[in-house]
Amino acid sequence: MSGPDLWPVVRAQLDAVTRLIPGTTGATADRLMLLAAEHAHWLSWVAWQEEKRGPALAWIDLAHGWAVDGGHPDMASWAQRVRAHYSLEHGDPIRALRTAEGARFAGPRPLSPAAEAAAVHQEAMAAAQLGERDRAVRLAEQAHGLALRAPDEGERPGWLYWLDATRARLQAADAAYACQRWADAAAGFREGLSALAGFPRDHAYYRARLEDAERRA
Predict the structure, then answer these.
(1) What are the start-end ranges of the E strands in 138-183?
(2) Interior CA angle at 169 toward 53 and 141, to 5°?
(3) 195: buried, middle or exposed (CB in 10 Å: 19+, 13-18, 0-12)?
(4) Are 17 and 32 within 8 A, CB to CB?
(5) Reported pTM
(6) Are 189 and 213 in contact (CB under 8 A)?
(7) Cα separation of 191 and 11, whole Å?
């Protein structure tokens, strides 16, 4: 089923969660706020894919607010990372870089390695778009190293279940591509492709990027 098909279900689940929050305190309320933030993030992502920019930004801001209120720095960082991604897709790399920088320092506690990796990678992509290629390369290397510190799915936040070693390598290749380091990008895409056999859409996407990088190298 598509995101729009599932929208009413997820929205109803979010409403059920938020009705419970006022009557709870402590750790229970904190867990409910994280659950609300996860639902709001999903609604934001679907709205963005449907080109509903205003609602997408409103939902991700709600997700960030619940994450902060519930004391969940990894989710607060992720919400800012998503906002940075939106800005970059909308053609505003300056704002994307500023927001991604903020995502690295969300909350009083250190981020988990996977959450920090996601934020640093987004910062790298924004820096590359601004022509700060040396900075982008350095950040991409840092993001890759952070991601490798959480090799098992259980070591990562639930919404970063996908950030395994293969995806981390492909993200590094994406950054190399954005920096016009075509040979490095091609090597990374080539290395990651074999692990995407079970994901035909992703495999086709990265196959096309590999072929383009090889042409440009």
Answers:
(1) none
(2) 90
(3) middle
(4) yes
(5) 0.94
(6) yes
(7) 39
| C-alpha–C-alpha distance, residues 40 and 32, integer Å | 12
> Would you say 81 and 45 are in contact if contact means Cβ atoms under 8 Å apart?
no
Cα 149 to its chain centre, rounded Å, is: 17
For 107-131, b where at least 16 C-beta lie within 10 A, e where not — what string? eeeebbbbbbbbbbbbbbbbbbbee
- How distant, in Å, are the alpha carbons of 71, 132, 170 from that of 167? 28, 23, 5
Alpha-carbon span 174 to 201, nearest angstrom: 16
Residue holding tokens 């840092």?
142
Q: What is 24-56 written as a DSSP string?
A: --HHHHHHHHHHHHHHHHHHHHHHHHTT-HHHH
pLDDT, mean of residues 109-120:
95
Q: What is the DSSP letter of 178?
A: H
Closest CA to 72 of 121, 45, 108: 108
Dump pLDDT digits (tens) for 13-72.
999 999 999 999 999 999 999 999 999 999 999 999 999 999 999 999 999 999 999 999
Distance CA 50, CA 98 (A): 25
Between CA 107 and CA 115 the distance in angstroms is: 12
Please state, as a whole number, how many other Cβ atoms lie within 10 Å of the Cβ of residue 158: 11
